[in-house]
Specification:
Layout: H1 2-9, H2 22-27, E1 38-42, H3 49-55, E2 59-64, H4 67-76, E3 82-86, E4 89-94, E5 97-101, E6 114-119, H5 131-141, E7 142-154, H6 169-175, E8 180-189, E9 202-210
Parallel strand pairs: 1-2, 1-6, 2-5, 6-7
Antiparallel strand pairs: 3-4, 4-5, 7-9, 8-9
C-alpha cells in the first residue's frame, strides 16, 4: 500500500474528482436506501461524494489509509474535525461525516457497522489477489439487507498498468456470487479515456444487496 502514500505525497491523484459523480447522483436514489442509515465508503480519499451522501440524510463513514487525504477532506470543506485514536485507527469526525484512517482490511465491525455502501474507485484500486478479502470485509461490515452501489472500470489489462485495475463484469459476478444479489444497472463505454492508449474501456454500475 506504499504506492498510495507516494501518490498522495506527490499529488498524483488523477482519480480524485472535484465534483460529485454523476452516476452516483443518477443511481443512488433508485436503491431506496433508508434515510438515517450509515453509508460505508471504502478507500474514500477526500471524495466530495461523501458530502453528497450526507446531504441525502445519511451518516457517512469513510475508510482511508492515507491520513493527509482524510485531513484534506475536512480542510477543503472548511470544517475542523474531532480527532481520536481507537485501536489501530484514527477517527476524524465532523457532523455526519466520519473518516477512519487505517487499513480497511483490519477494520472491525464495532467501528463501522453499516446499512449501505458506496464504491466508486475502491475495488478497482486493488489487484485480483486481494479482491476476495475486500468482498469478505464488506460482508463483515454491512448488515443483512444492506445495499451497495459500485462503479467499476474494465479494459484489456495488458494495455495499461494499474491501478486502477481492470474489473470485468464476469469477475464482479464471481466475487459477489455468494451472499449477494447482483444487479447490473448500467454499462457505458468511456470514449474520453481512450487517449490512454486503450482499445476499449467501459464502466459498469452495480446494485449489490447483502443476503
Amino acid at each position: 500500500m506504499t504506492i498510495w502514500h507516494q501518490r498522495w505525497s506527490n499529488q498524483q491523484i488523477g482519480f480524485h474528482r472535484s465534483v460529485v459523480n454523476d452516476l452516483l447522483e443518477k443511481h443512488w436514489p433508485t436503491l431506496n436506501v433508508q434515510h438515517g442509515g450509515t453509508v460505508l465508503v471504502p478507500l474514500c480519499g477526500k471524495s466530495v461524494d461523501m458530502h453528497w451522501l450526507a446531504q441525502q440524510e445519511h451518516d457517512v463513514i469513510g475508510v482511508e489509509l492515507v491520513s493527509p487525504a482524510a485531513e484534506a477532506f475536512f480542510e477543503e470543506a472548511g470544517s475542523t474535525p474531532e480527532v481520536e485514536s481507537i485501536g489501530q485507527f484514527k477517527r476524524l469526525n465532523s457532523g455526519p461525516n466520519t473518516i477512519l484512517c487505517g487499513d480497511f482490511f483490519s477494520l472491525p465491525a464495532s467501528l463501522a457497522s453499516c446499512t449501505s455502501w458506496y464504491d466508486r474507485a475502491a475495488l478497482v484500486a486493488l489487484p485480483s489477489s486481494v479482491r476476495a478479502a475486500y468482498v469478505e470485509q464488506i460482508r463483515t461490515l454491512c448488515k443483512l439487507g444492506s445495499v451497495g452501489l459500485m462503479i467499476t472500470f474494465a479494459y484489456p489489462q495488458e494495455q495499461m498498468q494499474g491501478p486502477p485495475f481492470s474489473l470485468p463484469n464476469e469477475e464482479v459476478e464471481r466475487l459477489f456470487s455468494s451472499g449477494f444479489e447482483v444487479e447490473l444497472l448500467e454499462q457505458l463505454e468511456l470514449e474520453d479515456e481512450k487517449d490512454r492508449g486503450l482499445s476499449n474501456l467501459y464502466s459498469s454500475v452495480y446494485k449489490l444487496t447483502r443476503r
